[in-house]
Write a structure and sequence with these properties.
This protein folds into two domains: about 10-210, inorganic pyrophosphatase (n-terminal core), CATH 3.90.1640.10; about 215-340, Diaminopimelate Epimerase, Chain A, domain 1 (Roll), CATH 3.10.310. Helices cover about 40% and strands about 20% of the residues. It has helices at about 10-20, 35-50, 80-90, 110-115, 145-155, 165-175, 190-200, 205-210, 215-230, 245-250, 300-305, 325-335, 340; strands at about 25-30, 55-60, 75, 95-100, 120-125, 135-140, 230-235, 240-245, 275-280, 285-290, 310, 315-320. A six-stranded parallel β-sheet has the order 3-2-1-4-5-6, with helices on both faces. Strands 7-8-9-10-12-11 form a six-stranded mixed β-sheet. Strand 4, helix 4 (about 110-115) and strand 5 form a beta-alpha-beta unit. Helix 2 packs parallel to helix 5 and helix 5 runs antiparallel to helix 6 (about 165-175). The structure holds guanosine-5'-monophosphate and manganese (II) ion. Manganese (II) ion (MN) binds near residues 99 and 125.
Amino acid sequence: MFDLKIDTEKIDAIREIIAKGDNFAVLVHTNPDGDAIGSSTALAHYLRKMGKVANVIVPNAFPDFLMWLPSASEIAVYDSDKERCDALLKDADAIFCLDFNSLSRIDAMADVVASLDARRVLIDHHLNPDDCFDVKVSETKACSTAELVYRVVEMLGPAEALDVAFAEAVYTGMMTDTGNFAYASNRKDIYQIIANLMQTGIDKDIIYRRVFYNYSVNRMKLLGFAMYDKLKVYPSSNAALLTLTYKEMRRFCVAKGDTEGLVNMPLQIKGVRFSCMMREELPGKINVSLRSVDDFPCNKVAAEFFGGGGHLNASGGEVYGTMEYAVERFKAVLAKYKEELTR
Ligand code: 5GP
Ligand code: MN
């Protein structure tokens, strides 16, 4: 399998942008996950180490189990502190856009970001990035955006920049976006990076426990309830569906991050190749998560049926309406993709 390479011209362009600026904003997508928070805190840590001001700004809150990452407690959250975030964005000499490919993925922040003159640098691993970025490090073969941040920083140098705090953040992004290296992680150079990260002194077993052994009792109960009562398998379509209504989410006091990973679980069932989870975040607003194995295109389904997108094997979108209507949409997916699901 090939090794991933980033064009040196792109690195030169980023080097010049960093040299010319004093103040940078680092943005990630709505509902930030381990890769979003890991890659952004890693890059911000690097920029600060280079003597710059760097602020991570996220559209909405992120899970508590990521709060230990470098300076995570200083992350500005747009939907709870719009004024501060707008001021930070205005002061930025350049804006790094991490782990998303289109301004629509930062929701309410999109308009203000689009209105600023600051240059925009994209570092991301999603398909089909928009044209609104001045420099694009867009590599869909990367296991995570964190892997790309590592590569960019390694090429920018100096070698001392690869310190333990940086390495912990990068490792977290790589680990979470690959389900602890269970998928999207078949390139040998990924493990060369991990060896380099471990060279800094990180303890990968502790990082695993901080992220995956840090759930609430509510999450465990929700998991049991979801698998026992709410999982529907469609054996003739090799598919599975999990639904959680707003009322059920309230019953288990679901907090940010509590449903993380749930959608992957039905893929453990023999024969299941496509898994969908629908959770009603607010009455009438249903968040859709899709996962698949092999070549079943979640991103196509997400774009066609749920107004979203993502990766081949992990995508998301939304439905506005009742859960009954959302389930009908899911059944329409199974009808349309019957052949792809069963071949
Ligand atoms: P999750 O199911 O964890 O929320 O999202 C899985 C992946 O799907 C994310 O990493 C992201 O790439 C993509 N994704 C989720 N929601 C959306 C959406 O609304 N639009 C697009 N374009 N991608 C999404
Ligand atoms: Mn990612």
